């Protein structure tokens, strides 16, 4: 049977296995799901990407065929079920193909950031025991090879673009041209049990050494089932999803590789933050996901632009913003304000929506706390910004707000199939099929994270402190990150840093004060705003209690970045690293 015939075969002809081996949607594995969908829609666009000066597409049938070739080649090179394979690449179709091929033969994907240092790669290679690496460029191949030299070497190194000099690497084209038995691979994929390990996602390490989160197929399939009702109600089948986060990010790996494509969306890989404004116009996405920092940048650009407009346009914008916030938070609009609001919608909100492509159904923020004032800005202007919550240890999506029932002070209700509970000490506990199997090679950390809850059953202890209001989760802090001042007061650094960074003048912030008389801060000013930071700190202090107020602050010697080790690849500040590097400066502020 040819590959084309295999893709055209109806699903019922391939259902010769036990019904109990199927999940809620009839699939027990991620490759099994993707192959089934490729048979149903071989000619539909799956992925869109920029290459050689133009947008190009990979269709579902082409994707399945490439997965078959790569899977056969990996087997021919001796890859066995359970082997871990490092995958280091920018977001591109080859990433998806490699990921699916690895899982289809029972091996385990280890997604890794392209921004990782040699030391980062060495830690992951050593911890995971990976002996094979698939990378995108010769430069990345050299970096991974250098890391591997310190950890026992690699058995196989594959490079997608060109051949690295001086390294025993194999070309990607060799894998994609390997003869394959696609029907057999599809049949095997249907037999993969839901509990088999699919990938090791290494946490970004904001507070310590990254740990390998063991996610089985069921965890990510549970995420899909949990949001299926939301996605179906949004009506985004056939519409584009603009993928901005790297595929090595646990959220993007689940949502961009499997969840949204399986719901009929075409995934479009962004060319980067500097092209995002143009891509909103080119792609006209229905859904976009990003971290809060991106929304802070977008707001700052919008405010800078409105400052250049005429007095009338500025007043209309400010009126629209003010009335939009009042519609959400009160007090209720008066009769005259209600009458003028439709006019503001046409004059202001429609134009704002058009700048974002005109058909956005959800702007999703995740990865860090989204300040309610920041989300309020976008919502008041008619943009559907919603906040979700999750952890790599939980598939990773735990909860998300609904565009039609958005409570922006919360992270939304738990997904369908997710149980949430608040322990006596305030910690959020989670249970369900989405929860990881544990941390790779780390039984102590696993035992600490997966342990008995109040009912004696095993729960994921998230390490986040929060509460549940009207069925929605509210996250207030990290359990271990409270600052205890000299006076014995407990202060939340996440709250203070979130408030500081919600001010347009402040790009990054870290606060300190453990065992000191008061709270001090290390701040990075937004571009061109260096002389306005003091005013921003004063505005934040006006919102805080006496014990929480920033007593003293200083500008950071340099911005926190991935390159200087003070920012994770997902744009989270490494608080511990910042506190250690600048302990002298912070100590002088506290005196």
From TrEMBL:
Keywords: ATP-binding, Ligase, Nucleotide-binding. It catalyses: a long-chain fatty acid + ATP + CoA = a long-chain fatty acyl-CoA + AMP + diphosphate. InterPro entries: AMP-bd_C_sf, AMP-dep_synth/lig_dom, ANL_N_sf. Residues 38-440 form the AMP-dependent synthetase/ligase domain. GO terms for cellular component: membrane. The keyword DNA damage does not apply. Residues 1-25 are annotated as: Disordered. It comes from the Bacteria. The keyword Nucleotidyltransferase does not apply. Residues 11-21 have a biased composition (Basic and acidic residues). It holds the Pfam family AMP-binding. This is Long-chain fatty acid--CoA ligase. It comes from Roseicella aerolata.
């Amino acid at each position: 049977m040819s590959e084309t015939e295999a893709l055209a075969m109806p699903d019922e002809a391939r259902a010769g296995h036990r019904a109990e081996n199927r999940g809620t949607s009839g699939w027990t594995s991620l490759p099994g799901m993707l192959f089934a969908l490729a048979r149903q829609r071989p000619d539909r666009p799956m992925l869109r990407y920029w290459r050689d000066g133009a947008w190009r597409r990979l269709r579902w049938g082409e994707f399945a065929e490439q997965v078959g070739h790569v899977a056969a080649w990996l087997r021919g090179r001796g890859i066995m079920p359970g082997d871990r394979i490092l995958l280091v690449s920018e977001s591109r179709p080859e990433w998806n193909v490699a990921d699916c091929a690895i899982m289809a033969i029972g091996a385990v994907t280890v997604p890794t950031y392209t921004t990782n240092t040699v030391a980062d790669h060495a830690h992951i290679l050593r911890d995971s025991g990976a002996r094979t690496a698939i990378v995108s460029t010769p430069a990345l191949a050299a970096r991974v090879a250098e890391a591997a030299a310190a950890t026992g070497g690699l058995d196989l190194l594959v490079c997608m673009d060109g051949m690295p000099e001086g390294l025993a690497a194999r070309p990607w084209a060799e894998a994609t041209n390997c003869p394959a038995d696609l029907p057999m691979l599809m049949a095997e994929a249907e037999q993969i049990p839901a509990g088999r390990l699919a990938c090791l996602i290494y946490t970004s390490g904001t507070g310590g050494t990254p740990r390998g989160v063991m996610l089985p197929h069921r965890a990510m399939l549970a995420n899909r089932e949990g949001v299926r009702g939301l996605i179906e109600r949004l009506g985004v089948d056939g519409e584009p999803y603009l993928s901005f986060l790297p595929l090595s990010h646990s959220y993007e790996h689940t949502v961009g590789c499997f969840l949204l494509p399986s719901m009929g969306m075409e995934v479009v890989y962004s060319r980067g933050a500097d092209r995002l404004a143009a891509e909103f116009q080119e792609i006209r996405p229905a859904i976009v996901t990003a971290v809060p920092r991106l929304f802070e940048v977008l707001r700052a650009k919008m405010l800078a632009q409105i400052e250049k407009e005429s007095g009338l346009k500025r007043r209309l914008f400010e009126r629209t913003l003010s009335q939009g916030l009042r519609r959400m938070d009160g007090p209720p609009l008066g009769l005259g304000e209600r009458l003028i609001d439709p006019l503001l919608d046409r004059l202001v909100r429609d134009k704002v929506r058009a700048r974002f492509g005109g058909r956005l159904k959800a702007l999703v923020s995740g990865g860090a706390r989204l300040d309610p004032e920041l989300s309020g800005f976008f919502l008041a202007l008619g943009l559907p910004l919603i906040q979700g919550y999750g952890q790599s240890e939980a598939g990773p999506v735990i909860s998300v707000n609904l565009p039609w029932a958005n409570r922006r002070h919360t992270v939304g209700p738990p997904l369908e199939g997710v149980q949430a509970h608040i322990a006596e000490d305030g910690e959020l506990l989670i249970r369900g099929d989405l929860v990881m199997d544990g941390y790779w090679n780390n039984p102590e950390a696993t035992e600490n994270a997966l342990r008995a809850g109040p009912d004696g059953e095993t729960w994921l202890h998230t390490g986040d402190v929060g509460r549940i209001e009207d069925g929605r989760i509210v996250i207030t802090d990290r359990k271990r990150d409270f600052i205890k001042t000299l006076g014995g007061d407990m202060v939340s650094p996440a709250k203070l840093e979130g408030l500081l960074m919600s001010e347009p003048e402040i790009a990054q912030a870290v606060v300190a004060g453990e065992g000191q008389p008061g709270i001090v801060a290390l701040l990075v000013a937004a571009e061109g705003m260096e002389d306005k930071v003091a005013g921003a700190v004063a505005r934040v202090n006006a919102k805080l209690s006496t014990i929480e107020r920033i007593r003293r602050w200083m500008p950071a010697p340099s911005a926190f970045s991935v390159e200087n080790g003070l920012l994770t690849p997902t744009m989270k500040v490494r608080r511990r690293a910042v506190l250690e590097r600048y302990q002298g400066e912070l100590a002088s502020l506290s005196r």
